[in-house]
Amino acid sequence: xxxxxxxxxxxxxxxxxxxxxxxxxxxxxxxxxxxxxxxxxxxxxxxxxxxxxxxxxxxxxxxxxxxxxxxxxxxxxxxxxxxxxxxxxxxxxxxxxxxxxxxxxxxxxxxxxxxxxxxxxxxxxxxxxxxxxxxxxxxxxxxxxxxxxxxxxxxxxxxxxxxxxxxxxxxxxx
Amino acid sequence: xxxxxxxxxxxxxxxxxxxxxxxxxxxxxxxxxxxxxxxxxxxxxxxxxxxxxxxxxxxxxxxxxxxxxxxxxxxxxxxxxxxxxxxxxxxxxxxxxxxxxxxxxxxxxxxxxxxxxxxxxxxxxxxxxxxxxxxxxxxxxxxxxxxxxxxxxxxxxxxxxxxxxxxxxxxxxxxxxxxxxxxxxxxxxxxxxxxxxxxxxxxxxxxxxxxxxxxxxxxxxxxxxxxxxxxxxxxxxxxxxxxxxxxxxxxxxxxxxxxxxxxxxxxxxxxxxxxxxxxxxxxxxxxxxxxxxxxxxxxxxxxx
Lengths: 174, 304
What we know:
The structure holds two protein chains of two kinds. In chain A, α2 packs parallel to α4 (82-101) and α5 packs antiparallel against α6. Chain A has helices spanning 17-32, 44-55, 62-76, 82-101, 106-130, 143-149, 151-159. Chain A has one domain (17-32, 39-161). Chain A has seven helices and no strands. Chain A is mainly alpha-helical. Chain B is globular and about 85 Å long. Chain B is α+β, with helices and mostly antiparallel strands. In chain B, the strands form two sheets. In chain B, strands 1-2-5-4-3-12 form a six-stranded antiparallel beta barrel. Chain B folds into three domains: 17-67; 75-116, no CATH class; 128-279, Thrombin, subunit H (Beta Barrel). Chains A and B meet through α1, α3 and α4 of A and α1 and α2 of B.
């Protein structure tokens, strides 16, 4: 029976690379939805990327961040390199903090993820303001707050394929 | 499928140090940023990445499209009937003007020929549907559903039934990006209809425009209509752009602060007409000695 409880000591099944691809593509898809102009809609790609950088820091890293950033830049019609720069820094911080963060309970993990996500937004803001763009309004910085609240459900959701049954059933070995 | 944990961690071969990688990627991003901003020569790369992101974007647009479709279906006959009646009235109201338009145009052509003035270009274009607003919150752009396949090129102006909407700035195989006139980097050369004064209107963001470089004592009033002057060689002359909404004249500044409201439904979704590129303007006459730069004084053309 699958029990969606989280403890850091719980042994998980190895992650499937296909699922990482799938979740990041889903993040892109969510980002491209027409909801993007509502204030406070989180940057899904940044959130999922942070998650995998912390969870699978040996597999997902700055290369992924750069590629995803370029995709976001093109799809957004933003200046090339704007998202890439922010995501690469985000991935680097997340990877460096991964071993530490994973020891904390989920709520405290979320609090530690918040500054990273805020920083990613602020970097983009500063880059564009330096380049002479107009200020988009404070709603732009609201996304990370909501993303932080989503950290706990997201963890359960993305780890779901990795949970293994707690009780072994002799008749159903898998 | 093999999991990532199945191979033992490589103890001695771990690739470049994280800091080196970080420096590399950050430098690369910054280089892209600067090149894209200053030189605007990265469109091939953009098109390459767009080939990957475009299918995902199309999928993401589907739910919204379905909702629109359903709403249109459920809107009911009454709405359509009233809209139809309204459109018929509008058509009737415009009928006298339209009926005489052709006559007036031929007359105008003939008179222009008599005066040996160059003929006015006719506006031709391609109707395109606005698909969505570009996500970038720092700029005002929309994406339309026609691109290279329909022969759209960067620089073409776009209008709707009320006035100028913007200008095509980037072209992809099946879509194109229009920078709205309210974008901060977009400028449209205009002319005040009442006084004939020429200037340039700039986007302010937030759905507003600013008319710059008019002296504080310029002859301009609230409610004045601004139309394209056509001096840029891109916009055809005479398309309505904006209406003056407020004027601040301060003696401490050389120029008046003039705010305008765009006439076209710039921030709304709908259809736009992408106008065909204009014929190139005749080459600039050589500047005469003694006149320093562009003084804004119209230069008289030499008679042939």
